[in-house]
Amino acid sequence: MANILPPPPALPSGSVQYIHSSEKVQYVQSRGKRGKEHKNSLQQQIEEMRRQKKRDGKNEGRIDFNNLSKQIDPSNYRNSLFHNTCTSILAKGYHQSFTELFELVQKQREDHRIAGPGAILLSPLIDDKPDKLDYLQVCLMSAEDASRRGDLEAVYLSQRDLALHFDQTGDHWLSDHFHNRCLETGRLIKGDGRRKEGEAHFHVGLAYENRGDLDKAVEHMEIFYELTSANNWHTENGENLYRIACEHLRRIYTTIAEKSEDTSLLIEYLQKAHTMSKKAKDTYQEGLASYRLGCAHEKNKDFDTALQCHKSFLERSRYHSDEVGVGNAYEALARCHEHKGDLESAVQCLELYVNVAEKSGATESLAKSCRAAGTIFNTLVSNNVCLVI
């Protein structure tokens, strides 16, 4: 008899709620006491700089015509905002800060030039954005001060503040740059068990993931995972970094699996994702990972393994009172039983699917389950197959 039930849904979904890409990404932003003090200090410096600029602007409006040439510097009006910022940095003796800022602006200008008309899709040029230039100036000079003192942790904190700030403003090319600078500095820090390096690997991994370079994302996230597995690290909110590493690796492995056209590679990465969900002790995500893995084994015609995966999904869905998940689990189990020739079990699963859909009031699920049950019953009748249920 030809198979009656439809094939498993295209991965990763059984229904929209199972698409993992809608998950909120969790960032590692633990600061600690010193990190908070450093952040507050930078903010105070930025605010003081802006107040000073306002005072200077007001003073320039008070003209003493007897000393006009001494009061007004024409270069302040002739030169660009970026030029004046660079001049200010150099005048204070921060040559490394000047070099890094200048190279960043030159790189962005070159990217815009290469993009041509497509430059409109890139981040706006920062060389005429006073708020961004102020933030860069203060943090870069703070990092250079710390470097002169040999305080690598303070260098790292300044670079991390820049990276997280530009994450929030959406200037990802800048945040990517400073996450990489954090990684360079983190590798040099001694005495913290490589925690700063680990956090930097985490953020660089996320940056690669956002750009679609999943191989590089996995490379950095796996280093973060290895470092957290050997240390009992927590964020300031008490969240375990090992669990966070597992959750992010699970998501990236799932994305790689979704993009794979090779069934063996698909199963390999879905198995990795399932393992990570178990290590994270996230039973809800473990259930979804089991469902995806079961669908992959169905695609590979391994219905015995698929059955075990879908049973695990059913168990987790019941535990979390997820009626939609329970219904999808019964539908998947019915498919597997049908492929194995166990029509009695297939019908039983479909009837349970109908019951769950009726109780939950999910109209779409109810219609879907009734169609599947009706189809299989009609086919059984037309083939003179009698089941006692």
Could you please describe the fold and organization of this structure?
The chain has helices spanning 32-60, 68-71, 75-78, 81-91, 95-115, 130-149, 152-169, 172-186, 195-211, 214-229, 241-259, 263-279, 283-299, 303-319, 323-339, 343-360, 363-382. With 389 residues, it is mainly alpha-helical. 72% of the residues lie in helices and 0% in strands. Among the domains are: 35-48 and 76-189, no CATH class; 307-389, Alpha Horseshoe (Serine Threonine Protein Phosphatase 5, Tetratricopeptide repeat).
Distance between the termini: 20 Å
Low-confidence stretches: 11-22, 68-72, 385-389
| Average pLDDT level | 83
Q: What is the H/E string?
A: HHHHHHHHHHHHHHHHH
Largest sheet: none
The DSSP helix count reads 17
- How many β strands by DSSP? 0
Tell me the structural class.
mainly alpha
Question: How much helicity do the residues have?
Answer: over 70%
Taking all Cα atoms into account, the compactness measure Rg is 29 Å
Organism: Amphimedon queenslandica (Sponge)
Subcellular location: Cytoplasm
Function: Axonemal protein which is implicated in axonemal and/or peri-axonemal structure assembly and regulates flagellum assembly and beating and therefore sperm motility.
TPR repeats: 198-231
Features:
repeat, Tetratricopeptide repeat protein 29, 389 residues, elongated, disordered C terminus, 0% strand, mainly alpha, TPR-like_helical_dom_sf, Serine Threonine Protein Phosphatase 5, Tetratricopeptide repeat
